[in-house]
Amino acid sequence: MIRAFKNLLKRFWPALRLRTILLGVLLFSAAMPGLGAVFLSVYENTLVRQTEAELITQSAALAATAQNLWPTAYINVPARDDPSYFQGEFVAIDLSFDPVLPERPRPRGVNADLIDPEALIVSDRLGPIIEQTARTTLASIVFVDRNGRFVRGPMTGADYSDLPEIRTMLAGRPQTVLRRNGSYHPVYSVEWLSRAASLRIHHARPIVVNGKVVGGLLLSRSPRALFKGIYQDRGKIALGFVVIFAVVIVLAGLVSRGVTRPIEALSRASREVAAGQGDIPETPATAAIEIRALYEDFRAMAEAISLRSRYLKDFAAAVSHEFKTPLAGISGAIELLEDHAETMSEAERRRFLGNISADAARLSQLVSRLMDLAKADMAMPEAGAAADVADNVRRVADAMSNHDFVVTHDLHASLPEVAVPAAAIETVLTTLAENARQAGAKTLGIKARAKDQSVCLTVTDDGPGIPATDLARVFEPFFTSHRADGGSGLGLPIARSLLSASKGEIVAVKAPKGARFEVTLPVA
Fold first, then answer.
1. How far is CA 151 from its chain centroid?
2. What digits encode the pLDDT tens for the residues 96-118?
3. How many CB atoms sit inside 10 A of residue 7's CB?
4. Cα–Cα 20 to 30 A to 93, which of 42, 132, 174, 290?
5. How far is the C-alpha of 255 from the C-alpha of 243, rounded, in Å?
6. Which one, of 188, 223, 220, lies nearest residue 103 by Cα?
7. Residue-wise DSSP of 480-493
8. Which domains occur in the chain, in start order?
9. CA distance 224 to 227
10. Percentage above 70 pLDDT, the chain
11. 8 Å CB contact between 464 and 440
């Protein structure tokens, strides 16, 4: 099942660049501290707003109770279908933007005789409700009259009308403010991380009777502590850590599958290929785009090295075989001359010397052709090469034609210039003409046509042709069917190497009569 899942994953794995993988990992790593700070800030702000919402709820219930208990109250409840029936009130406090006021100051003066009499009556009825509510919610609840004086409590008669939240309340609007908590003393050393730990939330709500503000309620409470909240929500936070850990594992797997493991496999394959063992590994489907390109480059390099190795091995064997015959002839003739020169006739000595000379000439020709092949194999594309095909074809036709062998040509009008040196074109055409003449052909035809982004030359002769079994071998070094006529079997390999250096191509194709070669030259 795991293998099936991996195969499915490979099939749908997106092609990612190495820089994308590393950027994602680094961005996630860099964002972790910021994400943690943002989480704590948002979470703490949520706790503060939750406390404000609780104070709003409590004050709304107590204010409604006071309104109904007020002696002169006339309650006019609107119909439920009235648009003003529902009047929602939402939390508005924000730790990041709202100012933090100093601790609630001492009152300007205390005089219980100045308290509104109606407020005192309501206080006697509302007092027990306030005490029971405060005992459960742990909030400080103060009842003030229309002048901002405390109606009930140890500070009865204290004037707090100059407080901004009281002034707003007496104007008929509820307000919540943040104030320093003077009685706060940190217990743990890490509490400095919490901004709300030393604050207290104050919420003031007016009591409106018959359209007038007759008093109000001032509630205050410390917000839920950050670390206590974290402990209470430990399950959710633990789930968040699990998600983060899972993301880290996914990113680690992404780096492993996209970078590390493919490089390790490629390194192991390099050692095996260097030792002549093992195969070239397949390109991993989950690797990064650059790693895939590296695999393809490695595969191309390994194949080129293998091809070059086989070429050198075959070339060395062919050279050894080609050199062995003339060297054996020269050695045998010299040995006979050394042993029997005095008893030989003049004609015999001349014959053996002639054999030595012929074999030496063949060796010299082989060395010269091998040098030409080596130069052709090492040839590089010539920058800015631009040759006129028609001129080169006419030049070769004039040079190779005589009374025994005729070269004809059929050239399409306005042929484009090709990105192949003129000398390479002449060498290729001359080699084909020489081979045709050696094979016994009387005529050689050259046809040139432009096709797409190349010029195609079709070269045919009226000779005996090439057997179908030899079509693929004519470009092998030293392969020739005219060795007795002095053929070295290096002309076509040289021609192919010269064209390959300029991205050209030559192939032998089956023809109903004679030999046929097709040469493709890229347009300049």
1. 71
2. 788 888 988 887 777 877 888 88
3. 10
4. 132
5. 18
6. 220
7. -S-GGGT--S-HHH
8. 2-75+97-232 (3.30.450.20), 305-376 (1.10.287.130), 382-522 (3.30.565.10)
9. 9
10. 74
11. yes
